[in-house]
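R.M. (postdoc): so does anyone remember the format we settled on? I'll just put the structure tokens first.
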């Protein structure tokens, strides 16, 4: 059965844009009905806009942009000199990932997956052009349909449909890929697999909210956990299997390109309620258990680790796996020894699934550890991980007990343990609450500007400078998820707080490319980011990276000081983005302003669709 992308379920791409026009009270006329970015007929657009707005473009009649928002800041244009125009990159760069470039990767050693780690291009090799979308690119299906269907044109790679055919990963049907929800270890479907895990792990109660899925494949586990209010941070290398992380993001599931190699994973300590490996091919027992020690670092006290597939149940399956039973037996012995050293308690083993639980506190652990066999990490900050070498040492338990953590969704606005214990310098419980309230106000203003913000139009959202996670918390909805990025140069390391709220995120330095494919995000938010990076690296590089990871017709909201935004707006002027600058929601006297933008639709060899 062939499905026609975005005709029935996604409406038409143009009608989506017409509805944006209504939602923005017509000041975003730049997204008008004449965009030629997808399927549909113009005569249907008038009906759609009339149905949604009653024929009145000013659907928020009480909102006056002149008095409430100060309107557009038209005087900014007078400061602009001749702008630099960025040309499209060669179509061969359609799926370019700068820091995981395949050709560059092959020049590095294969030992310990070094070649699959981040290796960013030097300054002289950076591209200064706009990455094109492939011909035929369309907006992904809305969630939850996107979980099961991806337009073929968006990621035209069929190898997984052949290589993983009997494992039910993905099937090619006409002009779409269909994802039945299977996997190497759950060919009968992810839901049945999750049911088996839930018989041991308290998934329903809200105790388990955040999960790290290592070697995630096409992220079907994360896709199906969403309905159970569990959000997974999935990662896999580029590219053991062609386009697996790209497929995950096209499905609307959080994922990044990543690997367990020689560098610590870019997540804070005690971040995840659960970690998972389903035949992820990671040698857990190797290197003195270093990889399990890294999982232990990011696993919250009381958290669970799930291993399904080799070497579990090796006595029965060694022939099917075509591996010597002695080798598998030794592999499982190493894992059991490492788990014992980490004080993990084995809770379950049945078939090919084994589950361990990390103990709640250090006291109960230390009485069971053989001190002569344990080396504790000496770093004073277990969250200092950006480009830090992974060590064969055990991260000590914190002084603050994670038992204070509420179940989700209560933990979203409860004071996180890191804040209540004073672990985050300069952030008291009162300041945390003030920050949460401030972001509720900001997001309320954003929703007045863009009425599609909570409609499901934007599924994959990124906050480039997330702070305490207030933006994501205020947006919280089953229709969307937010990748909260805490810059490695930020004044405070707040990513641990974000995870304690039941949200997900990652450390990153925006002087480099992000670990994702082009066109991964529907919307990008950047608060104070350009002030933070001003004079630290080229703002042009940051904006080009934003363009790379933003989908055609994706939205951008940049909140910053007006002098910085003037610089940013000048660069954007050559980037095929349509922009409007607006005053702060508290009025024109506030020096902080808001720059709202929409990326034009264009593909390799094609023209853009701005009506400006």
């Amino acid at each position: 059965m062939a499905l026609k992308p975005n005709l029935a379920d996604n409406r038409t791409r143009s009608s989506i844009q017409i509805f944006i026009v209504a939602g923005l009270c017509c000041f975003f006329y730049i997204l008008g009905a004449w965009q030629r970015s997808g399927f549909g007929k113009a005569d249907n657009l008038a009906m759609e806009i009339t149905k949604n707005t009653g024929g009145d473009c000013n659907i928020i009649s009480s909102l006056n942009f002149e008095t409430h928002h100060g309107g557009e800041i038209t005087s900014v244009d007078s400061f602009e000199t001749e702008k630099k125009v960025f040309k499209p990159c060669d179509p061969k760069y359609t799926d370019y990932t700068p820091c995981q470039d395949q050709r560059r990767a092959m020049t590095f050693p294969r030992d310990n997956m070094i070649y699959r780690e981040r290796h960013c291009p030097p300054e002289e090799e950076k591209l200064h052009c706009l990455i094109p979308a492939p011909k035929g690119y369309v907006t992904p299906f809305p969630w939850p349909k996107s979980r099961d269907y991806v337009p073929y044109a968006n990621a035209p790679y069929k190898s997984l449909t052949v290589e993983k055919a009997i494992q039910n990963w993905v099937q090619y049907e006409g002009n779409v890929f269909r994802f039945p929800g299977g996997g190497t270890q759950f060919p009968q479907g992810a839901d049945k697999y999750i049911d088996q895990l839930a018989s041991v792990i308290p998934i329903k109660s809200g105790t388990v909210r955040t999960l790290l899925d290592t070697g995630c494949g096409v992220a079907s586990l994360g896709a199906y956990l969403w309905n159970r209010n569990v959000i997974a941070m999935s990662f896999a290398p580029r590219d053991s299997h062609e386009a697996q992380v790209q497929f995950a993001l096209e499905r609307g599931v959080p994922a990044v390109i990543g690997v367990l190699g020689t560098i610590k994973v870019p997540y804070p300590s005690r971040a995840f309620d659960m970690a998972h490996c389903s035949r992820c091919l990671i040698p857990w027992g190797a290197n003195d258990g270093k990889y399990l020690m890294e999982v232990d670092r990011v696993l919250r006290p009381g958290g669970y680790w799930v291993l399904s597939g080799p070497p579990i149940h090796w006595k029965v399956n060694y022939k099917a796996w075509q591996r010597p039973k002695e080798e598998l037996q030794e592999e499982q012995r190493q894992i059991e020894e490492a788990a014992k050293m980490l004080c993990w308690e084995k809770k379950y083993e049945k078939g090919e699934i084994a589950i361990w639980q990390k103990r709640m506190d250090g006291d109960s652990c230390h009485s069971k550890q053989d001190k002569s066999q344990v080396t504790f990490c000496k770093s004073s900050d277990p969250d200092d991980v950006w480009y830090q070498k992974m060590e064969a040492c055990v991260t000590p338990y914190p002084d603050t007990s994670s038992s204070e953590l509420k179940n989700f969704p209560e933990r979203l606005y409860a004071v996180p343990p890191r804040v209540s214990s004073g672990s985050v310098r300069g952030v008291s419980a009162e300041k945390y609450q003030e920050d949460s309230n401030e972001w509720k106000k900001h997001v309320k203003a954003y929703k007045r500007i863009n009425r599609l913000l909570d409609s499901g139009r934007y599924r994959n959202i990124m906050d480039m400078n997330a702070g305490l996670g207030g933006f994501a918390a205020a947006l919280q909805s089953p229709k969307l998820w937010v990748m909260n990025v805490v810059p490695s140069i930020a004044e405070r390391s707040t990513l641990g707080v974000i995870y304690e709220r039941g949200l997900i995120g990652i450390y990153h330095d925006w002087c480099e490319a992000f670990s994702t494919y082009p066109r991964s995000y529907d919307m990008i938010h950047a608060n104070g980011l350009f002030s933070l990076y001003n004079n630290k690296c080229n703002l042009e590089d940051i904006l080009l990276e934003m363009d790379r990871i933003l989908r055609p017709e994706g939205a951008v909201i940049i909140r910053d000081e007006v002098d910085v935004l003037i610089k940013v707006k000048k660069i954007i002027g050559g980037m095929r983005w349509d922009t409007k600058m607006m005053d702060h929601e508290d009025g024109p006297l506030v020096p902080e302003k808001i720059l709202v933008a929409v990326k034009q639709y264009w593909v390799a060899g094609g023209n853009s669709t701005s009506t400006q």
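R.M.: ...and that's the designed sequence above, right after the tokens. Also worth knowing: The chain is about 25% helix and 15% strand. The longest strand covers residues 550-561.
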